[in-house]
């Protein structure tokens, strides 16, 4: 049986991790999943996509608390908070996608959700603040004076989201197979490094 | 002016980081520094190599405390603790070596010591416990029953040493340009990934 490559990418805002993932998926000719996950989850649950987008990658209270209070998705009396419902639905979808074959998945704690999947390569992409700020201004049109603040707030949310669901520390090397500073080497350089890991693994 | 490649390697015990560094230096045909540093430092200071080996990569109290109490190496009344003397002498040697040209340096907080050197590529090599334990037994002849305990204690010391001198967290991705889990890809695989980063940087 040939090996799959399930590449999960966690990324600091402005590090180019999402673009690196998309281009890598193109290069390897495998599916790429990011916001598509929300769409799939929304369709499956019956909630509107807009409602889910408003709580996506936000964490409140604790998932354990939610499970204790609300039970599971189908057996509960009171409805579970939307963000926890979304996480559970997305986690199920991520596991189904990983079953189907090789792919690249960005964000959504996919490394944690798939921690029992032997074919995962979990990647963390980051960069120093000047590189991220420059990228956020050039690519996302952020106001240069506010870029640093927005980056810090976004990453704070991502870190909280990751720790809330995984109980692990975002950006701690041991949670990933590979961590790449994209700052000095750019998008193509980081793709080359991740490709080298994928080749070595295959 | 052509770019140097100063590759610093921090590594978990049993991850193969030292061997990866040595083989990478061979491949790139550049000098490799590890225990040689102690020898150089010992010769320069006049202390015996044995005395220095006994305190190497051990941290006590605080370097700032030492500097406050004992002053610098030459102007002090009471002698500074040996481990801090060794760190300062080694740091000076590391900076001199980096000035001379491309090289690979393992351990000794070299990434922190050289934080103002623009040609550094700082690498952290790690692996999960089963891979490290198997390697420690096979390569260093550790008793299988004790391997895990020795690995944990050694890494605890390395972590304390790193934080003591750098005030940063050992194994936090952002402190390095590249973090590689050598477990699933082995020595050659990790060399390939680091080489890809070096190529992208050059």
How would you characterize the overall build of this protein?
Two copies of one chain form a homodimer. Chain A starts with 5 loop residues before the first strand and ends with a helix. A five-stranded parallel sheet of chain A has the order 2-3-1-4-5, sandwiched between helices. The longest helix of chain A has 23 residues, at 144-166. The first copy, chain A, has nine helices and five strands. The mean pLDDT of chain A is 87. In chain A, α7 (129-140) packs across α8 (144-166). Chain A is of the alpha/beta class. Helices cover 55% and strands 11% of the residues of chain A. Chain A has helices spanning 17-28, 35-45, 49-55, 63-70, 82-100, 110-113, 129-140, 144-166, 186-201, and strands spanning 6-11, 32-33, 103-106, 120-126, 178-181. The interface between A and B is medium-sized, with 27 and 27 residues.
Quick tags:
homodimer, 202 residues, alpha/beta, 9 helices, 55% helix, 11% strand
Brief overview:
2 copies of one chain form a homodimer. Chain A has helices at 17-28, 35-45, 49-55, 63-70, 82-100, 110-113, 129-140, 144-166, 186-201, and strands at 6-11, 32-33, 103-106, 120-126, 178-181.
């Amino acid at each position: 049986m040939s090996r799959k490559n399930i590449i999960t990418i966690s990324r600091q805002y402005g590090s180019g991790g999402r673009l690196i993932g998309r281009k890598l998926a193109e290069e390897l000719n495998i599916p790429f999943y990011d916001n598509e996950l929300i769409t799939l989850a929304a369709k499956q649950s019956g909630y509107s996509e807009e409602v889910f987008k408003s709580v996506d990658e936000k964490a409140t209270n604790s998932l354990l608390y939610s499970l204790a209070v609300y039970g599971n998705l189908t057996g509960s009396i009171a409805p579970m908070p939307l963000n926890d419902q979304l996480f559970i639905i997305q986690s199920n979808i991520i596991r189904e996608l990983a079953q189907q074959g090789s792919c690249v998945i960005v964000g959504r704690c996919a490394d944690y959700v798939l921690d029992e999947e032997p074919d995962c390569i979990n990647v963390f992409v980051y960069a120093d603040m000047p590189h991220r700020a420059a990228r956020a201004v050039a690519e996302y049109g952020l106001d240069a004076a506010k870029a640093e603040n927005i980056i810090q707030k976004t990453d704070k949310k991502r870190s909280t989201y990751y720790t809330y669901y995984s109980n692990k520390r975002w950006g701690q090397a041991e949670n990933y197979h590979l961590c790449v500073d994209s700052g000095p080497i750019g998008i193509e350089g980081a793709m080359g490094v991740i490709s080298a890991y994928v080749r070595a693994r295959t």
